[in-house]
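User: Structure please.
Assistant: Input sequence and predicted structure:
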Amino acid sequence: MILVINVCAEKLHYFEFVKPIEDILVKGFVTKNYFDVNDEDLKKAKKVIICGTSLKDDIFIEAIDRFDWIKDFDKPILGICAGFQIIGMTFGGKLKKKLEIGYFKEKFRKEFLGLKGEQEVYHLHNNYVKFNSDFEVFSGWEVAQAVKHKSKDVYGVLFHPEVRQKEMVLNFIEG
């Protein structure tokens, strides 16, 4: 079972940021709000996807301790946008401000969940994370766009693969 974590405080944001991930997965997943995730959910999960949310829907930042389980979780995690920020902050990264909206070309220095070379990705964020040395950066120079923890199966992307890189999500699930 894939555990899909919804960090949206606004119910309508679910349809823009979580439902597209569910549509990619089709079956074999359970979606829970981050406040409702419990130890049993984490035990049953084969992999976890922490979805994104809208620019102003960032209440999850105030409840970052709800994600302390990430540090000890021994199964693959993919964080998308807000999930990327959550992963970064959980591992000691610093949250920074930078508004980016629209399509941007990102160059992947190495293959990352099937993405390589130059890719046009969709950005919709007003925060990013300055990651510590526990993470390898695959794309992005000033602002990391795709990262992987050096010793864990923890991946993060600041962009929204549910818009243009759906195969990346499938590669995470199937890998």
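The helical segments are 13-17, 19-25, 39-44, 82-90, 161-164, 166-174.
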